[in-house]
Amino acid sequence: MSWHESILVLRCNEGLAGKRKMSRIFEALKHAQSLRDGKTQQEAPAGGAGEIPDRRRSRRLALDVSVYVYGHGLEKDPFHEEAHTLNVNANGALLLLSVPVHKGQTLLLTNQLTQREQDCRVVFLGTKHSRTVEAGVSFPRTNSEFWRTHSTPDDNPAA
Which phi and psi angles does 72 have, rounded to 5°? Predict the structure, then answer.
């Protein structure tokens, strides 16, 4: 077989592989369309194959905690506001803020119930509402004690 014939055979094989790829894409699109039209039922993935693992370092809790948020705005002007959490974990929280913040911005949180302070960094900006925005913050180190919202007998030695 000559060099030119070898190239021709390779190109034909590549063309067939490309058609197979396009065919799979086309079949997937047809299947999605039939699911949308209700012509077929979607099958459940075997063995939980479709589940996305939770990559968080600690368990997330839906907890409304009042916090004071301190920081510096874009003009370097200091600000503070009373805010609430939507979710918390030992590594941070999802806050509902009315002050505009940006990713990477450093903030200081004070838990209103315990008066504990914690520095954090904005790592996520989520849904914007009419006057608020969801902001995900991350602590530099795990601090599961920051969100403790109830006092234990050890907290009150006078009792």
Answer: -120, 135
